[in-house]
Amino acid sequence: MSKERALRRAEREVQRLEEVTRRANQRRRAERRDALIAAVRRPFSRVRGRGRPSGLIARRRRVENGVVVTLAFLVQVLAWLLTDSWWARIAVLLGTILFVPVIVTLVFDRRA
To answer: The whole model's pTM is what?
Structure first.
């Protein structure tokens, strides 16, 4: 009987040691993975500027973009009210899409 108990105890010890080694390996892998993820994220953790910019230039840019969008929208509304032709409406839409960047570049050019 004592030989059987000693054998079972030895089996339990082997299982416990296997479980301890398995958990240690899992912990080591998790630590390596976390270290790798931290190393990859570290250069990007210094990125600031989340949210809306609040300086003078940002405010001016928002006003300019608002004016451009409002004018383009008004051109579209006028085209829809003044013309009955679908071709003319589509032509005005395409013209607006094509010429708004050109007009913005000419009017709001900051290099001069």
So the answer is: 0.51
